[in-house]
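Quick question about two entries, pasted in order.
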Amino acid sequence: MVVGVSDSLAGLAALRRGIVEARRGARTLVAVRAWEPPEGETLFRRWPEPSWARLWADEAWQRLERAFELAAGGPPTDLRIVRRVVEGPTGPVLCSIASSPDDLLVIGMARPRGLAALLHRRPVHRHIPARAACEVLVVAGPRLLPRETRILRRGELVDGPGRLTGLMP
């Protein structure tokens, strides 16, 4: 059971579903967080800086752990979990890890709109099903109203009657 982990709402939904599927099949959960240098792999290869690579890898580890906190309140104690942080594009990384026909690969899918849709050129939910050697389960992220998306991005979670106070139920 391999889950592509991100801290997006779709990624958190995929992690929750991966936990459910791992429990159902009594399987090991392999949680994978792929990362790439912010300026791109080509530029980084030209002028590699090991200290920056360590910083980005550490940040990926922190995001992996934070995803478990946000999705399930922490890593489940009843499952065997293998955590992996791998440098590279998400699609190829996940396809290489979930390479057995017996694997199940769980990924989240958010449909960006507007400018985000134009900038998002390599959607993982298109790359993986076309190239994966195993069964792929694509989990849709929740649909939000534009105002809700803005509130979540800015972290404007406030207390008060009828107002959103947290991400977890």
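Here is the second entry:
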Amino acid sequence: MANQIKLRNAPGKYSIRAAGAVLGESSNVIELSEGDLAPVLYVPRADLAMAFFDKTDTSSHCPHKGDATYYTLEAKSGPIPDAAWSYETPKAGLEDIAGHLAFYKDKVTVEEV
């Protein structure tokens, strides 16, 4: 599967929103495609209001991407647990997604504007 992972710069500008708040905008989004799975957008932390994200104790391991850490979004309406994840030190060939967050679609909206 590792050879089926592809990264590309997602064209356009994206807005990142949750719980009625804009969390950021970015023109530097990376799209990760993995086999037959839906593409995942990775947003640079520098383009997000990281003050609203708290790292959690949740983690997972992907044999192709590495170890993921998770973040809870502290929204005005209350916390949204594990709304985002990040590969802090991804496997070789995927280093471009380091320093980026990806989001669960049912918790955070990332859309092209």
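Reply: The domain at 2-112 is CATH 2.170.150.40 (Metal Binding Protein, Guanine Nucleotide Exchange Factor; Chain A). The CA atoms of residues 20 and 75 lie 9 Å apart. Hope that helps.
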